Every structure is written in C-alpha cells, then in structure tokens.
C-alpha cells in the first residue's frame, strides 16, 4: 500500500489538480456513496516484492501497480469543467502531478514512479470515469 501513499500524496499536494478536485475527495479504495464529484479514487492492483537471496532483508524492494480513477459528473446542468471534457483535462493533470521521480515521498522511500496505461473510458448513468496506472517501486524501511 506504500505505492498508494506516495501517489495520493503527490495528487493531493498538486495545486493545479486540487483546484479541480479538492484533496479531501482524493481517496484510497472505494468512494463512499453520494461522494460529491469530481473525485479521485486509488487502488492497488498488484504488489510484487523483488526476489532477494535473503528474503528477510528489511530493505526489500516492492513494485506496486497503482490505479488512479477520476470520476466526473455529466455536464447536464453542471458547472464548467465537468463531463467528458473535464474528465480528460483531469487525466492530464493527474499525469503531470505524478512525474517519473524518486526519493522520499510522504515517508515512503520511492525508487521510481513510472506512468503506465490510461483508459478505458466509462460512463455509468451520469458519471464519467477514466483511469491511469502508475508503477511505483519502493523499499521497506
């Protein structure tokens, strides 16, 4: 789950993104019912520990696949920056908020963050969603 901790920190502390999606609506796991939109949810898709000769090494390296999903209202009767165009604009902000980088991020020793695939786009009733995956390599401390 350390990959989620690092990615959420980057998203919630990006001024351009939080101007569109408040940091209080950037959450790990499922969004609660009736969450105000726009919102962003994060999920760990997988976590793979690096195979080491000494499996008890306290600095074991993991690679987490973190999926970031943006949720936006349909534009009917909603404010500007919503709907499908707002969703696609937010996806660009999400990518910009999590550049390829390394170092200590919110207490997690990150070796690398690498953006992966974006999509697919979904629409369920009046909600548009899209996701992007990030591969986060980090070590236990």
Q: What is the CA-CA span between the terminal residues?
A: 14 Å
CATH C-level class is Alpha Beta
**Strand order in space, largest sheet:** 1-2-3-6-5-4
Shape call: elongated
Count of DSSP-assigned helices: 3
Structural class assignment = alpha+beta
Largest sheet: 6 strands, mixed
How many domains in all?
1
CATH topology: STM4215-like
The radius of gyration computed from the alpha-carbon positions, rounded to a whole number of angstroms, is 16 Å
Report low-confidence residues grouped into runs of 5 or more.
none
Query: Roughly what fraction of the amino acids lie in strands?
Result: 35-45%
Mean pLDDT over all positions: 88
List how many beta strands DSSP finds.
Answer: 6
Helix and strand string, N-terminal first?
HHEEEHEEE
Notes on the protein architecture:
The structure is a single chain. By secondary structure, the chain is of the alpha+beta class. The protein has a single domain (2-139), classed as STM4215-like (2-Layer Sandwich). The protein contains 3 helices and 6 strands. The protein has a 6-stranded mixed sheet. The longest helix has 15 residues, at 83-97. The radius of gyration is 16 Å and the shape is elongated.
Short characterization:
The chain has about 140 residues and is α+β, with helices and mostly antiparallel strands. The protein has helices at about 1-10, 15-20, 85-95, and strands spanning about 25-30, 40-50, 60-75, 105, 110-125, 125-140.
Question: How do the helices and strands line up, and which of them pair or pack?
Answer:
Blueprint: H1 2-12, H2 15-18, E1 26-28, E2 39-49, E3 61-73, H3 83-97, E4 103-105, E5 108-124, E6 127-139
Parallel strand pairs: 1-2
Antiparallel strand pairs: 2-3, 3-6, 4-5, 5-6
């Amino acid at each position: 789950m350390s990959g989620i901790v690092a990615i959420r920190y980057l998203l919630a502390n990006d001024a351009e993104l939080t101007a569109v999606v408040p940091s209080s609506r950037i959450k790990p796991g499922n969004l609660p019912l009736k969450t105000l939109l726009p919102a962003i949810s994060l999920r760990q898709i997988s976590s793979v520990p690096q195979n080491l000769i000494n499996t008890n090494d306290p600095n074991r390296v993991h690679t987490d696949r973190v999926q970031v999903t943006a949720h936006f209202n349909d534009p009917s009767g909603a404010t500007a920056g919503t709907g499908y165009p707002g969703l696609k604009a937010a996806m660009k902000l999400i990518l910009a908020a999590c550049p390829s980088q390394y170092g200590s991020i919110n207490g997690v020793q990150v070796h690398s963050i690498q953006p992966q695939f974006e999509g697919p786009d979904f629409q369920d009733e009046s909600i548009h969603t899209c996701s992007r995956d990030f591969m986060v390599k980090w070590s236990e401390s």
